Amino acid sequence: MADRAVTRVDKSEVLAGLFGVWDGIAALLGGLPEGQWSAASPLPGWDVKAVVSHMIGTESFLGGVPAPQPDTDCSALEHVRNDVGVMNECWVRHLSAESGADVLARFESVTADRREALTAMSEDDWDAVTPTPVGPESYGRFMRVRVFDCWMHEQDIREALARPSTDEQLDTAATRLSLDEIAATMGYVVGKKAKAPDGSRVLFELTGPAARSIRVSVDGRARTVEDFGGQEATATIKLDSLQFTRLCGGRPMCGARPQNIELGGDKDLAAQVVEHLNFVI
């Protein structure tokens, strides 16, 4: 079997998106009253402080800093489902007693270190294959996954604080890169999870400030394509782009944006795909 092709992504574009979402999170949290750091997020068992602590932990790990020793068996917690979750919870528990302002200072410090390291990284290292959450891939693809993860968590924080993104705040490089990352996974969602039959052509029509079309063709295997070669989609799914990302992340829909989902063509297949959109571990 041939090796899977490695995704090469533009370093300056991805870093602009990653640094932009870090800046957005820091601005969102700056001056936040202490009581709001304990606001419940859409993620089970996590408040705002826990979400930020998780991001601190991931960037610390990528910078070579080991996870702190937990004070309890994190794997026994109800919302922890795998080894990654255990590592996340170690940081969440470690920072839970710190003030929100101190957690924000940690976030700004670790992301400053990561900015420096990523900016200095050579193109060869950026394109080098490394283990990632989506399998062996380029380090650059890994950093696009980081954009997606941090951007999703910004939306989690906004939900917790009842400060949803405006249209202007959704029209960013980080949003577009996050949707690029989601689009790259839609073949897996349509083919493996939803089990769309051979010959299926599924069109996602995303509306709102991050509008785009994502097409998945099933021909032996499911893959994202630029077009259907002049053929019509066999199933269509139309919804707000932010709501699409929430469903892909296994989150509740955002109350501030349209929640309707229009299904067309083979509506049973379209509904099956919607039911299986969540691909986040």
Automatic annotation (TrEMBL):
It comes from the Bacteria. GO terms for molecular function: metal ion binding. InterPro entries: DinB/YfiT-like, Maleyloyr_isom, MDMPI_C-term_domain, MDMPI_metal-binding. Pfam families: MDMPI_C (PF07398), MDMPI_N (PF11716). This is Uncharacterized protein.
